[in-house]
Design a protein that fits this description.
By secondary structure, this protein is α/β, with parallel strands linked by helices. Helix content is 48%, strand content 14%. It contains 13 helices and ten strands. Strand 9, helix 10 and strand 10 form a beta-alpha-beta unit. Helix 1 packs antiparallel against helix 3, helix 2 packs antiparallel against helix 8 and helix 5 crosses helix 6. The longest helix has 21 residues.
Length: 307
């Protein structure tokens, strides 16, 4: 019986460091020979997805991530300072004083600039993972999602510089300065599109696999104005996410727990969680793809004959 090949689209959500779990999802899809015909990414999903779409394998991405996180450049970076400021557990008095001073320095900066980290500072991170090519040149069709702060519109990049598109999508509000592009002021795609399932569908995916790496609504005590503001943002984000997931056929949910968005030192654990969560959804994916199911059956028959 002949069957029409269905286009598989991945919708990779945002969540800062938690998005390293996307690498684990790619590892499973590669090993199980499940084709990926389209990738749409928001924020860290755009960074990992863009690198993969451009030609990096999951193994190469993991090695690159490990090398970068162990580099002097990352250890002295503002992002690493963010992680240290949110680290849990006992720390020395000297570390507490350093963290206090850093936090107040960043707070003062935030009063006078639209982002603590400039585009130029964050560009080095983008350049490390993303090649200097056009989106049209990626091995797998790719879309990055950003938000225009001037109009509130969702912006989907389908052409132009891959690095610029990923930079715009990753510009976390407050942490990274918005990217000025003509009349647009571009920021994190997660503001308006937490998981770009609808984008993958609109771009022609017959089967949409969404990967969610945010924490959902927290359970921490609301002690001050900032805690309340953050909780309100989480509630709004959760509503947006549910809307997006309605456009997905399979939802992969890595167990990221309460991992903070700056906790890049948890890279290996996060990648493992992505791999585990993707394996749990393999049967659901195969049920949607009869051709894949038949290929797995054929492989099992061939293996048994060889034995």
């Amino acid at each position: 019986m002949f069957w029409k090949k269905k286009r598989v689209g991945l919708a990779l959500g945002g969540g800062g460091a938690r998005g390293l779990a996307h690498i684990g999802v790619f590892k499973v899809l590669e090993k199980e020979e499940i084709p990926v015909d389209l990738i749409a990414g928001t924020s860290i999903g755009a960074l990992v997805g863009g690198a993969y779409a451009a030609g990096s394998s999951s193994e190469e991405l993991q090695k690159k991530a490990e090398a970068y996180l162990n580099s002097d450049e990352f250890r002295s970076s503002t992002i690493r300072a963010f992680e240290a400021a949110h680290a849990k557990g006992e720390i020395s008095l000297a570390h507490k004083i350093e963290t206090y001073l850093r936090n107040h320095f960043y707070m003062i900066q935030a009063m006078f600039k639209p982002g603590i980290l400039s585009n130029e500072d964050f560009q080095a991170t983008i350049d490390y993972f993303i090649p200097d090519i056009q989106i049209e040149e990626t091995r797998i069709p790719f879309r990055a999602v950003a938000t225009d702060l001037m109009t509130g519109e969702e912006i989907t990049f389908s052409d132009g510089s891959l690095r610029q598109a990923v930079l715009a999508s990753c510009a976390v509000p407050g942490a990274i300065m918005p990217l000025k592009e003509g009349e647009r002021l571009l920021s994190d795609g997660g503001i308006i599109c937490r998981v770009p399932s609808s984008v993958a569908r609109q771009e022609g995916a017959d089967i949409v696999i969404a990967v969610v790496v945010d924490r959902g609504i927290g359970s921490e005590e609301l002690r001050n104005v900032m805690d309340v503001y953050l909780r309100v943002s989480e509630i709004m984000g959760e509503r947006l996410k549910r809307f997006e997931l309605a456009a997905a056929d399979v939802v992969i949910l890595p167990e990221v727990g309460k991992t903070h968005w700056t906790s890049f030192s948890q890279a290996l654990n996060l990648i493992d969680e992505g791999e585990k969560a993707a394996r749990e959804k393999l049967d659901d994916i195969r049920r949607l793809m009869p051709g894949i199911k038949n290929r797995f059956r054929l492989k099992k028959i061939q293996t048994s004959h060889k034995a």
